Structure formats: structure tokens, C-alpha cells
Amino acid sequence: MESQINCQILPSLLSSFVDTLVDFSVSGGLFLPPEPNPNSDLITTQNAKNPKYPTCLAPLQTVFPQPTRLIAIGDLHGDLFKAKQALRLAGLIDPNDRWSGGSSTVVQVGDILDRGGDEIKLLYFFEKLKREAAKVGGTVITMNGNHEIMNVDGDFRYVTPNGLKEFENWAMWQHVGNFMKKMCGGLDGNVVIDDPFDGMPKEFRGIKPELLNGVRARMAALRPNGLISKRFLSKNQTVVVVGESVFVHGGLLPKHVVYGLERVNEEVRDWIHGLKSKVANQLVRGRHSIVWLRNFSNELAKDCDCSTLEHVLETIPGVKRMIMGHTIQEHGINGVCSNRAIRIDVGMSRGCNNGLPEVLEINDKSEVKILTSNPLYWKEYEASLSANKKDRLGSLIPGQRAKQVEVNA
């Protein structure tokens, strides 16, 4: 048709414009800066039968050197407001929400999904911070928690109505973007996103009609090889070592270390990316898996399996402590097993315990302290710091005061 716009000469420009518009609309108004290393996860092997689909991706980095400043952030559960509070508490973002942490390294230990309505916005926000930090020598690491795995598995027990609405809005903008691209005759079909609902059932048994579109959109986005899971979650580590600390959402057992930390990351990543049809249950499902384990986060120190923890740490070269989320600590970040297990989930999301933000800070000498917005802790913090200064861990609230908080769906 003569009236149809011919975009053969500008396919890349058009596609980029539409993608930016869609990203801006679903992220709460963010413009993602260019990726500093756009080829960092390039395919290392191509599928000869279908070059569009890889058979192998570049390895995820599992071990990082000790940075000058290391910040650990616990579970965020769909609460962008509280996430920004935690980041500002650590001096990592400025009043305009831009990265201000310089060469710092940040580890967020998983559970961005569920219990809140800002899940997609959080994924985009951390992606923005990753790119901004990389430009100035900083590093932002995001990890898989049990709720990321549950959603990839299609387990939506902890999803909120606002969470469904956010994904329904995301799906609408995917359709808008596709429609805009298809308006241009001669546009390369490879730049048009496939229908995000391709292969999705029209109905789900037991789902209320008013929730159906949100459930379908969420499953389409987060299933293995889904647009959101592949773009964001497949880049997450499941276990990571930074300096003398190993980070994990739930915990590690000796069998996980024997399995291989790099292998864990790559197999979980490949499953989320859609390259593998399944992933071992011992890694991501069940109470003894990496993302569900609570052996080192029980409410009382006497109930924590310190001997197993010691064995695990001894088998990971150079590691002295394990840092985990998953189990809400009512009295804030704390350590058990002589501070070899540090629990950092303070339930800060308003969908959980609405706890006051706290983060863990580790300096280049591997000295650990808590940064808290709770004024009630300051006197205790100062007294504890003086009493244990020689151990460099005095800022950790004694583990005997820790209390696990149960949060229902």
C-alpha cells in the first residue's frame, strides 16, 4: 500500500524507538542507559538448525574479588519505595535515583518477586543501576530467591492483585509495541517480538474471570524463555562469592558445594532461559534446596546447624561467612554461629513485615557492620561495637535476639 510507511531503511532505529517506549511505559518512566558491555552474555555456540536459539551461553560470573565497599540487601518483595530507601541508606543512589555508589559492589539476595505490586518496576530499576554502576567501576549483583523460582514454575500463591495488574499492563504494552512495528512495510520480521501469549492456554481452572488476563500475562512473562524471565531473571546468580563472603538466598549444604557453584548458576540460568527443560530439585525446590534452606536462619542461634555451616565454609576457598535472606529477622540483621552466618532479610516490604530498611556493609578489610534506619538500635549498636571491636563484628546484633517472622500468603 502506498499509504503504508516503508521502514526498510530504518528498521533498527524504529525497533529501538518502540522498545524504548515500551520499556519506559512498563518500568514507571525509566530510560535504560546503554549496556556498557552489550556482548557480555553472547552466545558461544549456535544451534545449526535454528540460529535464533542458542545452545550455550557465556558462563555467569560466580566469584568476584573483595571490593573496597560491599553492600548486601535482603528480600524486597515488590516494594520499590522500600528498595530505594535501603539503597539511599547505603548511599548508593542520589535524590534523582541515579547510581552514586562509585566502585561499590551490591548484592541483592533475591525475592524481588511476589507480595507487592512493583515487581516489574524493581526488575527494571536494578537493571538501570547495573548499567549505571558499570560505567564507573561499580557492580550490582541480583540473585534468584525461592519466589523467582516459584514464578518461573508457574506457582503464583504469593502474587497480589496489584502484581497481576502490573503484568497485565506489561502485556498490553507488548501488543502495542508489536502493532507499531508491524505498521511499517518491509520491516525485518526478526525485530518484531513474537506473541508473548504464544502457547498459553485461554483459561485456567479455578481462576476468577477478573484475574485471568493478569495470570496469563504473568505466566507468559515468567515461564522459562518468557520475555521477562529471559531478559532479567536468567542473568541472576543463584550463588555468588564476593571476597570472603558467599551469598545465597536460603543456604548451602555440602552437597551443593560438591555439585559445583558455577554449575549451579549455569544450570539454573539455562533452565530459566529455556535452554534446558528442567533443573535439579536439590538446587531450587524443596526445603533442602539452595533457595529454600533455613538451617542457618532459624530464630534462635541454638537451632542453627553451625557444624554443617562450618564444613560448607571450609570447602569454599577463602570464604569465612555465609550471607542469606529468605527468613525474616524481626529484630533486624543479625549473626549466628560466631557471625559465620549473617541473616539480612528484615521483612522491609510492606507486603511482608513493613520493617525498617537495613543493609549490611563490608569494607575492604572484611569488617562488617549494619546500616539501619531504626533509631532504637543505635545505642545497642554502639555498645556492642565497643565490646567486640577486636572481632570486627561488634555491630551485629546478638543472634539470641533474632526472631523468625512467618508471613502468610
From TrEMBL:
Domain Calcineurin-like phosphoesterase: 69-327
InterPro entries: Calcineurin-like_PHP, Metallo-depent_PP-like, MPP_Shelphs
Gene3D superfamilies associated with the record: 3.60.21.10
Highest rank taxon of the organism: Eukaryota
Full protein name: Calcineurin-like phosphoesterase domain-containing protein
Species name: Forsythia ovata
